[in-house]
Design goal:
The chain is mainly α and 192 residues long. It contains six helices and four strands. The strands form two sheets. It has a two-stranded antiparallel sheet. It has a two-stranded antiparallel sheet with strand order 3-4. The protein is globular, with a radius of gyration of 17 Å. The two termini are 26 Å apart.
């Protein structure tokens, strides 16, 4: 079986399992995110033939999706995983390094790799810097759209784990850092 089919099958299984868990937990906010993940999976699956996304990015996306859904579905000491502090590097009010921040970094790391494949197809440049820059900026645009959707969840649902303005700003910072590293990795891997 080609990896494209494996990717689609595993993605749909993850979405189905965690959607079922969301229904059992009455976690409708995460059901919204499951629908968004489903759309993203379809976009990746159907555009893969055209852009030849790296397998490592698709594996990374599966890992991220599992961690993302786990973060909203599971609790530790009464807190969702998304609220957990992994390393207390910077205290209040910034609370760095949380599970949420690590997943933002990881997702936009992957996003930049996917976008690098798209941009490389259309931008004929001997220099990789313009492709790197466009991948980072495009990932940041997707990150801003994600924050708009999180704000919508915050407004629509009575209780969310979205957080404060500082959380929003830190999400954007970790998106940016992940996107820069992801685009850099994509450049290095594309040279091989």
């Amino acid at each position: 079986m080609k990896f494209e089919k494996v990717f689609l099958t595993l993605s749909l299984i993850l979405i189905a399992v965690f959607s079922g868990l969301g229904i059992l937990q009455s976690n409708y906010e995460f059901l919204t995110y499951a629908v968004i993940a489903f759309v993203v999976v379809l976009i990746i699956h159907f555009s893969d033939k055209h852009f030849s996304y790296p397998i490592y990015a698709k594996i990374g996306f599966l890992v991220w999706m599992f961690l993302h859904f786990s973060g909203g579905s599971f609790r530790y000491k009464g807190q969702s995983w998304y609220s957990l502090m992994i390393l207390n590097l910077i205290p209040e009010p910034y609370l760095i390094l949380k599970y949420d921040q690590v997943l933002h970094f990881f997702f936009y790391f992957l996003t930049a790799i996917f976008l690098f494949s798209v941009i490389k197809k259309y931008l004929n440049s001997k220099s990789k810097f313009p492709i790197w820059l466009l991948a980072v900026l495009a990932a940041m645009g997707i990150g801003a759209l994600n924050e708009v959707m999180e704000f919508g969840a915050y407004v629509y649902y009575e209780e969310t784990g979205v957080g404060t303005y500082i959380n929003n700003a830190l999400d954007l910072v970790f998106n940016f850092l992940g996107a820069m590293l992801g685009a850099f990795v994509a450049i290095k891997k594309s040279k091989k």
